Amino acid sequence: MIAARVIGRQHSFMRHQGSPVSSRRTSSKDVQTLCCSSAFSAVWRFLEIPWSRLSSCLALSIQKGHSTLRWQSLPPGHGEALSSMLEVSELFQWRAASSGCKEVSLQALCCGLARILGDCELQSPTARRQALAALAGLTAGNAAAMAHAEEASKQLLTDALPSLRCAGLLSMLRLGRWGAAEQMTDLLQDTDQVVRLTAEKALMEMAMRNASAAQAIGRTVVQMLRSTQAAVRLHSTRVLGCCVVKQASEGESQVYAEALVSAMILGNPEAWARDREELAARCAAVDVLHLLAAQESQKQLLQDLLVRAAAVLDVGPSKGTWSNLAEFLKVVARNQSASVVVCERLASPNPLVRRAALGILPMVFHGTVGETAETTQALQSLSSHQSPAVRTAALDGFAALAPRDGALRSAALQAASAALCDSDGRVCVQAANMVPLLMARRGHPETVTAALRSLAAPNAHNRRVGAEVLAQVAAQDDHCVTRSLGLRLEDQDAGVRSAAGKALADLLVLSDREDVLH
């Protein structure tokens, strides 16, 4: 036991000093009588040997052959001396036997625990964590203990050991003190991931408990959304989300929204779209923006947000980034359609932007009735664009989405059939390649009519394409088609004559096959 060990040391000291105590065995009663004398109390105050003070104090508590530390027996000021010499585990024992203790003694214990916490050179991390836990356990209804615990927790927030920084964060949360929220938010930028996560969870819990804390935390955290580190922005955005839920005043929401939008589109998509953590940080910012829009009933904010988000395509990102960018746009769109804003990028003069938009379009298309109608309308509008490259991109967009939806397939066939008469040869070729793939069966009236119209067009490339398409879509017994193709065997353009002859030959072979089958 601690008391017996220290008393043994006291006897050795007294023998060394020539004390009469060394000549006989000292009983517990004798020691208690000795310690309680006024003369010994005077010596206590002036002795500089720590273990003699500790042994005298402990001797006060010896009852019935075993050690019981009694707070009531400690003279004023002696509890602090005792607490500074005990180990953490012994302090726990002391606290366990301290029911009904005096205020002065409780403060002394707090001072001792605070000293252990502050001694980063001699005390082990485990001892300091235990001391912090013990100190936090003494705070109920005691202002002095609360002050010591808060100060000790603040000091741990800047400790060199990550585990103790985490302990300080959790202690501040347990104490419910919001004054150190700004200091806690600094740990969202800590180099240790566990510390960052602990800070995030502690601040989120603080924000959800108290509206004033949410306001203070939100004002500090929003500044961190400018960080160039994705991890810092991710943790900060999650904390800010809790602040928005708890405290969404109109004055703050505008500041939050601007900072979140900036964090959402920060940097070049080609640089961040390959990084999953960067993607997560931006998606988290979008989630909080949706929260703000819902609380403020700002539908316009969501529409503007989607337009701003689609700007990530304006740099012409490479193929390796498309899947992540598509995921980002789907998160932004949520209940809206991202297809329309992606289709708008098909009108870009930059071929890399059009290429990226075509690659991402099928990834963001969900196929709902409303989305299908909007997307169809957008692509049809682009089909009549003044730029041949844009008209070709519109046909490519139809081709990419046609397998996903029957209505889009029909619209794609209609657009491709109309493009057979386009003034640009590249658009015609693209349409000619699409039509046979979109046809469900030969002899489709609208398609055949469009091909015949192309066959009679003034431009040679239209007539050539018309003949090629008729060979693949016309019925073998359509005499109107064969007669029109026959007339083109005398066309002034050699390419048209060759295409018409080949088309007639193909239809003749098809007709012979049908005769054999019948």
Describe the model.
This protein is mostly helical. Among the domains are: 337-342 and 361-438; 441-518, Leucine-rich Repeat Variant, CATH 1.25.10. The protein has 29 helices and two strands. The chain has helices at 2-16, 28-36, 38-46, 50-59, 78-83, 88-96, 103-118, 125-137, 143-156, 162-175, 181-185, 193-209, 211-221, 230-246, 250-264, 269-272, 276-296, 299-310, 322-333, 338-344, 351-364, 369-383, 388-401, 406-418, 425-438, 445-455, 460-473, 479-487, 494-517; strands at 62-63, 66-67. A two-stranded antiparallel sheet has the order 1-2. A hairpin with a 2-residue loop joins β1 and β2. α12 packs across α13 (211-221), α14 runs antiparallel to α15 and α25 runs parallel beside α27. It is rod-shaped and about 115 Å long. The termini are far apart.
Percent range for β-strand residues? under 5%
Main β-sheet: number of strands, strand sense, barrel status? 2 strands, antiparallel
Separation of the first and last Cα atoms: 110 Å
Q: Strands across the major sheet, in which order?
A: 1-2
InterPro entries: ARM-like, ARM-type_fold
Write the layout of secondary structure elements.
Elements (H helix, E strand, L loop, with lengths): L1 H15 L11 H9 L1 H9 L3 H10 L2 E2 L2 E2 L10 H6 L4 H9 L6 H16 L6 H13 L5 H14 L5 H14 L5 H5 L7 H17 L1 H11 L8 H17 L3 H15 L4 H4 L3 H21 L2 H12 L11 H12 L4 H7 L6 H14 L4 H15 L4 H14 L4 H13 L6 H14 L6 H11 L4 H14 L5 H9 L6 H24 L1
Antiparallel strand pairs: 1-2
Helix pairs in contact: 1-4, 6-8, 7-8, 7-9, 8-10, 9-10, 10-12, 12-13, 12-14, 13-14, 14-15, 14-17, 15-17, 17-18, 17-19, 18-19, 19-21, 20-21, 20-22, 21-23, 22-23, 22-24, 23-24, 23-25, 24-25, 24-26, 25-27, 26-27, 27-29
